[in-house]
Specification:
The complex is a heterodimer of chains A (445) and B (516).
Chain A (H helix, E strand, L loop, with lengths): L2 E5 L3 H13 L3 E6 L11 H5 L14 H5 L2 E5 L2 E5 L4 E4 L4 E3 L2 E4 L3 E3 L12 E2 L4 H10 L5 E5 L3 H12 L3 E5 L12 H14 L3 E3 L4 E6 L5 E6 L4 E3 L2 E4 L3 E3 L15 E3 L10 E3 L4 E3 L13 H15 L12 E6 L2 E7 L9 E7 L6 E7 L5 E7 L5 H9 L4 H6 L1 H4 L10 H11 L12 H6 L2
Parallel strand pairs in A: 1-2, 1-7, 2-3, 7-19, 9-16, 10-11, 10-16, 11-12, 18-20
Antiparallel strand pairs in A: 4-5, 5-6, 8-17, 13-14, 14-15, 21-22, 22-25, 23-24, 24-25
Chain B lengths: L1 H21 L4 E3 L2 H7 L2 H11 L6 E2 L2 H21 L12 H8 E2 L1 H4 L1 H20 L2 H4 L20 H19 L5 H6 L1 H7 L7 H23 L4 H27 L20 H8 L2 H26 L2 H4 L4 H8 L12 H31 L3 E2 L2 E2 H21 L4 H4 L3 H5 L2 H12 L3 E5 L9 H4 L7 H5 L15 H5 L5 E5 L15 H5 L1
Antiparallel strand pairs in B: 1-2, 1-3, 4-5, 6-7
Helix pairs in contact in B: 1-7, 3-4, 4-5, 7-12, 9-19, 12-13, 12-17, 13-17, 14-15, 18-19, 18-22
The chains are: A alpha/beta (445), B mainly alpha (516).
Bound molecules: flavin-adenine dinucleotide (FAD) and iron/sulfur cluster.
Iron/sulfur cluster binds next to α23 and α24 of chain B.
Chain lengths: 445, 516
């Protein structure tokens, strides 16, 4: 019986394992040094903040793996011999595979700052990092977080839970500058500063981390020379594919492990999926490396088909993503660049209390909608997927915006306001605003 | 703000301790007058001798007098038994009423003062502790910080202590009300205010405490979930139904010489609805009584299927029901303790449907007896073999002692999930004929587990969400908390077309998935 070995028990590796099991009878082994069972990395912050315990973050009960004959091994792999098709474990053991799926995930970036290995400084990716954070955040008065992205803001929330004052250094002139446009980023900035008293520093770059003389962080110095005293530094300046293990081997890598459309590497019977994979030919609307949960899941599903005998190319559909910045939820569908390039224009609406907004980007000439960023208003994935697929125009989308609303019942509905704002801004292509009767709303959404 | 909170906590704890100590205050002395007032004339002579030592004696604690009275009555009954004089045996439960008239001293004489110092001050203290959170806890949003780090919410020492208190309280309430006579006296002033002719009973005490709990903790619920209109309005709804339908209206009806009736309670949760005495009481109480009888039947015959079809069982379980009301307010701090395992789900299905069958069989027997004027069915005495065990096991132990007593240990919906026959009935309708479902949003789930953790019914919501499948489960009470705590906006309670309700799992994301 063919033996499939999967290195990495994250969303990518586990999805592959589950789907291979559904479609075949192969022997499946999943290896990870981090944890015995699959847990949700995205929930790390909630363990720290006491919303959940580690057990709650495991998406499947422990019997699931036995019942589905998926063998789990908690081991660190130290070397792979591709010619012998054999893994070498740190513990000394070895394991032979017929086909290997690499799903090793990412590592947190560090860019060689002076003092970046001091105690009290850390990144956040794994369970071990979380343990360190428990330790490092004890008796801290002020923390500095470097890097305005998703993990940074999660870390800020975590420290906030421990009543630690947070100074947040952002290189760009607004939060998550390489993804969000100005307006929606400003709304988040406002939320962080006014509702959560985060000391947010725009356009501020880290120069070095200062030592207290005993090997522990004492503060940071910024490029402009300012010194900020702190006892904790959180480095959240992005992640890179975790390819340390295969770097100087026959396996072709660039930033990540290079794979073709079928997620195959240059070595036969070796595949790579998830954060660690780099697509040689990404589709025009997608990036070669997408370190998000959803991409890992979709790659896992795709590779499972190929391995089970149904060669399938990886064809992700329309981009989507979501996040949460303290209390404000963010969702995005389609293409919203951080700045409108030539030929693109956008419609922006914001609620008066600065807790909700939408940004719709469209093609100036054809008025076809390219994508949406939304804060504080949940949108229906299915509807947006269809609209973007069918190249709907801005007026159509605004007119039917209520159909895409996914907020819970009885929530304030913003569509009338949005439509009014739209009609004011685009008098040349007005839309009808229709009101539904109360009974209609209750019985028939 | 912090000071108000701390003062509130102090007041609450102080009044709670006073409330406990009230049981040990004052004394009891049964007078001839009291004896004659309570004991039926035909029993007075029989019991006179046994009571000769009790009458006039001063007891410091309720335990002494309760034990002596019980012993005296039991001694007489034993004599009758040895003499095989079955029809002489005294079945009337005199103990509680006798202890009640025997009470004297501090509590009995100052019941208004003690009422204010315990229940009223306790509630004020609790509110002082709760209300500042609307400012202190920062901007509106998910407020689950530290839940698993707290002794109250995570089966720590505080949770265990509260659980022990609640279990003890329910056992005393259901089976030994005489021991809590002082508490019952405490609520007499309020009882008199609502209905001057009435004497407070343990059930009035219970109803009052229950209503206080729902109201005070309802305010807490509203503050905690103030970012969600659904939660705010739903909580106001359960507070309203508890205060008016469950508490005030029945009392007012009694004052107007009408039958005690809770218009929102229904069979089979209201398991004595078809008891002969209940049917007789309603049908002999004129137009309103007949209306109550018809209303009670209409509610479960037409109301349940119709409303559940349009809205799911939530219209009852998390908007109207009293048990649900307590669970959603006082029980909210414990919702994360429900068991999410597949095994628990299996046990749940067996148990809750067995209770439904039990209720059904018992009711059929009771109705059969009522129509035919008999007392037994298939040669078995209905009361001994069906009605009494049901009342004891299900009505008291399961719904009260376990159902609420175990809040801090097994979560706030133990009864609703494992025991309530009405929930089982509503659930069958919801599962097979309803427009209600929880929709999952395309491919957005990140499997974080918040939804499952905070599901009070122990539904593994994530299991469905991460595979893109609507959640259609008979047990879902539609509290909406999964949707509120999901950090990615994945879940939505919806009433929509029945057609696509039981869908195949579908995650949006891959182009190939659509082609299939
Ligand atoms: C705090 C945080 C929050 C996030 N939130 C979101 C979010 O909200 N939405 C979103 O889309 N994405 C989010 N992400 C990103 C998302 O978690 C990742 O994209 C995803 O987990 C990657 O999955 P994977 O299966 O590729 O790899 P991983 O989950 O990293 O799994 C790889 C596993 O392989 C193990 N491994 C690696 N090398 C070896 C070896 N040599 N021997 C043994 N084991 C090894 C690793 O220890 C690890 O356990 C978040 C990430 C973090 C850190
Ligand atoms: S809370 Fe939301 S994102 Fe988390 S597992 Fe549940 S549905 Fe998925």
């Amino acid at each position: 019986m063919k033996h499939i070995v999967i290195l990495g028990n994250g969303i990518a590796g586990i999805t592959a394992a589950r789907h291979i099991r559904k479609k075949s009878d192969y022997k499946i082994t999943v290896i990870s040094g981090e944890s015995e069972h699959f847990y949700s990395r995205t929930a790390l912050m909630y363990i720290f903040m006491g919303h959940m315990k580690y057990e709650h973050t495991k998406p499947y009960e422990d019997w699931f793996w036995i019942k589905n004959r998926i063998e789990l091994m908690k081991e660190w792999v130290s070397e792979i011999d591709f010619s012998k098709k054999q893994l070498q474990f740190e513990s000394g053991q070895t394991l032979v595979y017929d086909q290997l799926i690499l799903a090793t995930g990412s590592v947190s970036n560090k860019f060689g700052w002076k003092g970046e290995n001091l105690k009290g400084l850390q990144t956040l990716y794994s369970l071990q990092d979380l343990e360190n954070m428990e330790e490092n955040s004890k008796s801290v008065k002020r923390a500095v977080i470097v890097g305005g992205g998703l993990v940074g803001v999660e870390m800020a929330e975590m420290l906030h839970y421990k009543s630690i004052d947070v100074t947040y250094l952002i290189r760009e002139n607004h939060f998550w500058g390489n993804v969000l446009q100005n307006e929606e980023a400003n709304l988040i900035d406002h939320h962080l500063i006014h509702d959560h008293h985060i000391d947010l520093r725009h356009s501020t770059e880290l120069e070095e981390i200062l030592d207290d003389g005993k090997g522990h962080v004492a503060g940071v110095r910024t490029k402009s020379g300012e010194i900020i005293d702190c006892q904790f530094v959180g480095l959240t300046v992005g992640v890179s594919p975790n390819i340390q293990l295969v770097k100087n081997t026959a396996l072709e890598t660039e930033r990540g492990i290079l794979v073709d459309d079928f997620l195959k590497t240059n070595i036969p019977d070796v595949f790579a999926i998830g954060d660690c994979a780099q697509l040689r030919n990404p589709q025009p609307h997608r990036k070669p490396i997408e370190a998000v949960w959803y991409a890992g899941r979709m790659m896992g599903e795709t590779v499972a088909k190929t391995i089970s005998g149904n060669e399938t190319a990886y064809r992700p559909g329309i981009w989507f993503n979501s996040a949460k910045f303290f209390d404000i939820e963010y969702q995005t569908y389609g293409q919203v660049p951080n700045e409108n390039s030539a030929g693109l224009s956008s419609f922006y609406w914001e609620s008066k209390n600065k807790k909700a907004c939408i940004k719709i980007v469209f093609n100036e000439a054809s008025k076809i909608v390219m994508g949406i960023n939304t804060m504080g208003i949940r949108q229906r994935h299915e509807v947006w997927d269809e609209w973007l697929e069918k190249n709907r125009r801005l007026d159509y989308v605004i007119e039917h915006l209520g159909k895409a609303n996914f907020d819970p019942e009885l929530f304030k509905r913003y569509e009338p306001e949005i439509q009014q704002a739209y009609n004011y801004e685009f008098p040349e292509m007005p839309i009808k605003t229709s009101k539904k009767s109360f009974l209609h709303k209750v019985l028939n959404k | 703000m912090k000071l108000i909170k701390q003062t509130g906590l102090f007041l609450f704890i102080a009044s709670f301790l006073l409330f406990l100590s009230i049981l040990f205050l004052g004394s009891f002395q049964l007078t001839d007058e009291g004896f004659n007032q309570i004991v039926k004339s035909e029993h007075q002579e029989i019991l006179a001798e046994g009571f000769s030592d009790i009458i006039g004696k001063e007891y410091n604690l309720s335990f002494g007098i309760v034990n002596d009275i019980n012993a005296a009555i039991e001694a007489i009954n034993n004599e009758f038994k040895t003499a095989q004089a079955w029809n002489q045996i005294i079945y009337d439960d005199y103990t509680a009423s006798l202890v009640r008239v025997a009470a004297k001293g501090t509590v009995a004489e100052n019941s208004i003062l003690f009422f204010l110092l315990t229940l009223v001050l306790g509630s004020i203290g609790a509110l002082m502790y709760i209300i500042p959170d609307s400012k202190l806890s920062g901007a509106a949003g998910i407020k689950n910080n530290g839940i698993f780090h707290k002794a109250l919410n995570n089966r720590g020492w505080l949770g265990i202590m509260i659980g022990t208190f609640l279990i003890t309280f329910y056992i005393l309430l259901y089976f030994f009300p005489a021991y809590i006579t002082n508490w019952i006296i405490l609520v007499q002033p309020l009882q008199s205010l609502i209905n001057p002719a009435a004497t407070s009973s343990q059930w009035f005490l219970y109803g009052l405490l229950y209503t206080f709990a729902v109201l005070v903790m309802g305010i807490r619920m509203i503050i905690k979930y103030r970012h969600s209109n659904y939660q705010i309005i739903r909580t106001i709804s359960v507070m309203f139904f508890q205060l008016s339908f469950a508490f005030l209206i029945p009392e007012i009806l009694v004052r107007l010489n009408q039958p005690y009736f809770d218009f929102k309670n229904m069979w089979p949760l209201d398991y004595d609805f078809f008891d002969a005495w209940h049917i007789k009481m309603l049908t002999s109480s004129g137009g309103l009584g007949i209306f109550m009888f018809v209303w009670g039947i209409t509610l479960f015959v037409i109301g349940v299927p119709a409303l559940t079809y349009f809205f799911g069982k939530r219209w009852y379980c998390s908007w109207v029901c009293g048990c649900g009301g307590l669970a959603e307010t006082a029980g909210d701090p414990f919702r994360q303790l429900s068991d999410k395992s597949l095994k628990a789900w299996k046990i749940e299905r067996w148990l809750v449907h067995s209770v439904l069958v039990f209720a059904l069989v018992m009711t059929i027997a009771v109705v059969y007896n009522f129509i035919t004027g008999t007392h037994s069915i298939l040669g078995l005495d209905t009361y001994t073999y069906l009605r009494k065990p049901y009342g004891f096991l299900i009505g008291s132990i399961f719904s009260g002692v376990v159902g609420t007593g175990f809040y801090p240990l097994m979560g706030n919906r133990v009864w609703c999930r494992f025991g309530c026959p009405l929930a089982a009935y509503l659930g069958i309708v919801q599962r097979f004929k309803s427009r209600f479902r929880i929709t999952t949003n395309g491919g957005q789930c990140i499997s974080c587990g918040n939804c499952s953790t905070y599901c009070e019914m122990g539904i593994d919501v994530r299991w469905y969400a991460q595979r893109g499948q609507n959640i259609v489960r008979s047990s879902c009470v539609g509290c909406g908390v999964c949707s509120a705590v999901c950090p990615r906006g994945v879940l939505n309670l919806e009433n929509r077309d029945e057609k696509d309700r039981l869908n195949e799992p579908l995650l949006i994301g891959l182009q190939t998935e659509k082609e299939q």
